[in-house]
Design goal:
The chain is mainly β. It has a domain of 32 residues. The protein contains no helices and 3 strands.
Length: 57
Amino acid sequence: AGEERAEDDGVLLSVVLDAKASTSFLLVLDAATLEEEARATVPHALPMGFHGQFYGS
């Protein structure tokens, strides 16, 4: 049996799109406090609803 943990023990991941600047970043939030833990920038904008789409090279 594993350790019992709080339901909000973990992180939330969210892709943020700045359409005006044509940039995006992955935001990592503490699930309990919603404080920013980290962010990772990407070299281009990720459109809304990018999950499940294929982008060819």
